Amino acid sequence: MLLARVIGTVVATRKEVELEGLKFLLLQGTEVDGVAKGGFVVAVDAVGAGVGDLVLYATGSSARQTVVTKDRPVDATVMAIVDLVEEQGALRYEKRADPS
């Protein structure tokens, strides 16, 4: 799995029938501390992620292994929302509490 930040949503009104009902998110790859690194990817959301979340996503055949994406033509799927990242005993990222 790979780390990324959700930076937006993608809407496609015309699409294959197998993609109907799926939510598409625009992701940007990140370092372990959440700092942007790398390119962009459009992924199907399988866990209810939103803009600003740090997420784990999978690509290729692994992207089709969730209940939401089983046997669907997808190449990237958000599979987890990250709460914290620890590296060699040091806290590198911690999700902030929702201010509302």
CATH homology superfamily name: EutN/Ccml
- Spell out the helices and strands N to C: EEEEEEE
The Cα radius of gyration reads 14 Å
Q: Briefly note the CATH topology name.
A: OB fold (Dihydrolipoamide Acetyltransferase, E2P)
Q: Structural class of the secondary elements?
A: mainly beta
CATH architecture group name: Beta Barrel
Indicate how many domains the architecture comprises: 1
- How much strand content do the residues show? over 45%
> What order do the strands of the largest sheet run in, or round the barrel if closed?
1-2-3-5-4
Give a summary of the structure in a few sentences.
By secondary structure, this protein is mostly beta strands.
Kindly describe this structure.
The protein is mainly beta and 100 residues long. It has one domain (2-94): EutN/Ccml (OB fold (Dihydrolipoamide Acetyltransferase, E2P), Beta Barrel), CATH 2.40.50. The chain is built from no helices and 7 strands. The radius of gyration is 14 Å and the shape is globular.
